[in-house]
């Protein structure tokens, strides 16, 4: 039989070859893919087990560093196609994973799962050092660096180190690159990073996507939310190495450190007063300009500081006081006011003078006290130029020029420029003398009177003349004595113009013009103008 007669047609040969190749491929797939559960494939490099040949090939690229899947937009390469697909969302902006609770969308499913903890209040990752709980492991790792001081992200150009990768990226963009390719379509402002542009755009849209799970307050940035959360948790992770005082944010710690090094970089151009903070300088400058930018929308009253406006609204226009002291039941319109009040019960005085160590319950008390050391007197009388350390001092002084006496005694109708003077005056009617000397039992209407009297027993003379070192028990004695050195004679006779260093000298002199003879000799009845003349007689 001819060989040609027994040969199959060409088309049939091709079909046999294709069938044979297909059979071998199926057998290969069956040997690995279909029977994986019985015979897992093991990586010869690290021993990792996988279920299919394709998974093994993808896994081995980790060891070979082979990155076959490249991004067509930016050129970045990946070991797996799934990683490339996830990366592509950076360019497309696609966010297919949506939160069922709030509708927020995410590029990754893992990020959506992490976000879900915000609604559930779940914080499974706890700091072993301070007990702070975090919703994410990455957040805990960043937090722990506050305690360890670790800064693993180092700039390859200048060597500066950062605790977070975002800090390093921002540093490179702002310092070494200068390139700002991402431009705001609304105002034209440019940014080095797309995340920075997205944050900026929220200013125009008023979007605040980061919401506090405790009180519902919303923020533009996640960092602002993290800082706000410390209000609820009480966490103060930033600690001063000099005095140990703790703060909720790093910027406040940096401001505080200026107290220790004496740095006051912000100087008033009008009077030369130096301030620790830019905000303090701005408030100080309003003393000179009279600017009051914070205006009450209800009554139009203006204030130099925002806190002044807040206090005004709470005290005058709002009667609501939702914050109640659990110790005494007193209610307050603001939570900060309650915090300050509670220090009365706890004895806490967190504001300490860096010069003498005296502590205060409020920052304002420390600020006023610090002027004793600095000699600062920022409140200046527009009429005579006299300066005061406190605003209340200037207000009281102004009444000397205006003659205003708003505090009136209900018993006798006598009016006073200061409320403290009225309070002291009322004791004349009641006979009240609450300040009693422990040595002799003598009582006084004022604490100052008791203090001056006590020096009779102790012999203390705290007021010393800077010229001759002579000491006095009372400040008025030092003031009168000082005129001996200066020659000042402020008490002038209106009749003849003769001047005296003391008021009683003028009083004696005026008897000459009046012909008054107040000092009478009991034996003969003769009267004299001066007690010295009586003694001579």
UniProtKB/TrEMBL annotation:
Gene Ontology molecular function: any one: double-stranded DNA binding
Every C2H2-type domain range: 41-68, 69-96, 97-124, 125-152, 153-181, 182-209, 210-237, 238-265, 266-293, 294-322, 323-350, 351-378, 379-406, 407-434, 435-462, 463-490, 491-518
The keyword Ribonucleoprotein belongs to this UniProt entry's keyword annotation: no
Keywords from the UniProt entry: DNA-binding, Metal-binding, Nucleus, Repeat, Transcription, Transcription regulation, Zinc, Zinc-finger
Localization per record: Nucleus
Keyword Metal-binding: yes
Family: Belongs to the krueppel C2H2-type zinc-finger protein family.
Function: May be involved in transcriptional regulation.
Main location: nucleus
Name of this chain's protein: C2H2-type domain-containing protein
Entry's Gene Ontology cellular component terms: nucleus
Gene3D superfamilies per record: Classic Zinc Finger (3.30.160.60)
A Pfam family the protein falls into: zf-C2H2
């Amino acid at each position: 039989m001819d060989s040609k007669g027994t040969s199959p047609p060409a088309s049939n040969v091709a079909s046999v070859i294709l069938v044979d190749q297909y059979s071998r491929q199926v057998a290969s797939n069956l040997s690995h893919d279909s029977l994986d559960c019985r015979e897992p494939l093991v990586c010869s490099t690290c021993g990792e087990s996988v279920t299919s040949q394709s998974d093994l090939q993808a896994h081995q690229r980790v060891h070979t560093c082979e990155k076959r899947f490249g991004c067509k937009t930016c050129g970045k390469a990946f070991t797996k196609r799934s990683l490339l697909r996830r990366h592509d969302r950076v360019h497309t902006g696609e966010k297919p994973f949506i939160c069922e609770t709030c509708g927020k969308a995410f590029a990754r499913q893992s990020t959506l799962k992490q976000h879900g903890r915000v609604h559930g209040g779940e914080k499974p990752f706890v700091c072993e050092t301070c007990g702070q709980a975090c919703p994410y492991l990455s957040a805990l790792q960043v937090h722990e660096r506050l305690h360890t001081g670790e800064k693993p992200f180092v700039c390859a150009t200048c060597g500066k180190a950062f605790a977070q990768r975002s800090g390093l990226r921002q540093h490179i963009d702002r310092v070494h690159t200068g390139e700002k390719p991402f431009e705001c379509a609304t105002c034209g402002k440019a940014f080095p990073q797309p995340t920075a542009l997205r944050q900026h755009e929220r200013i125009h849209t008023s979007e605040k996507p980061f919401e506090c799970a405790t009180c519902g307050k919303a923020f533009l940035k996640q960092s602002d939310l993290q800082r706000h959360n410390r209000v609820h948790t009480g966490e103060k992770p930033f600690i001063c190495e000099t005095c140990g005082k703790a703060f909720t944010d790093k910027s406040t710690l940096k401001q505080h450190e200026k107290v220790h090094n004496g740095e006051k970089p912000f100087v008033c151009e009008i009077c030369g007063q130096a301030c620790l903070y830019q905000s303090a300088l701005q408030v100080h400058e309003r003393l000179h300009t009279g600017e009051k930018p914070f205006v009450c929308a209800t009554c139009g009253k203006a204030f130099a500081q925002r806190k002044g406006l807040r206090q005004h609204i709470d005290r005058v226009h709002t009667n609501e006081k939702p914050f109640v002291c659990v110790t005494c039941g007193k209610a307050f319109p603001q939570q900060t006011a309650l915090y300050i009040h509670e220090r009365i019960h706890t004895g806490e005085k967190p504001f300490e003078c860096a010069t003498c160590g005296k502590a205060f319950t409020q920052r304002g008390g420390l600020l006023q006290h610090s002027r004793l050391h600095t000699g600062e007197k920022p409140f200046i009388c527009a009429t005579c130029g006299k300066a005061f350390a406190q605003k209340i001092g200037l207000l009281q002084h102004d009444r000397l020029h205006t003659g205003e006496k708003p505090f009136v005694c209900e018993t006798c109708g006598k009016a006073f420029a200061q409320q403290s003077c009225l309070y002291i005056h009322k004791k004349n009617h009641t006979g009240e003398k609450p300040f009693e000397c422990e040595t002799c039992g003598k009582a006084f209407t004022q604490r100052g009177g008791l203090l001056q009297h006590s020096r009779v027993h102790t012999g203390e003379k705290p007021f010393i003349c800077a010229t001759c070192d002579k000491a006095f028990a009372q400040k008025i004695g030092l003031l009168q004595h000082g005129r001996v050195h200066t020659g000042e004679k402020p008490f002038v006779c209106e009749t003849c113009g003769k001047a005296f260093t003391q008021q009683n000298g003028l009083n004696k002199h005026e008897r000459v013009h009046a012909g008054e003879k107040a000092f009478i000799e009991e034996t003969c009845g003769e009267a004299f103008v001066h007690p010295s003349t009586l003694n001579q007689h």
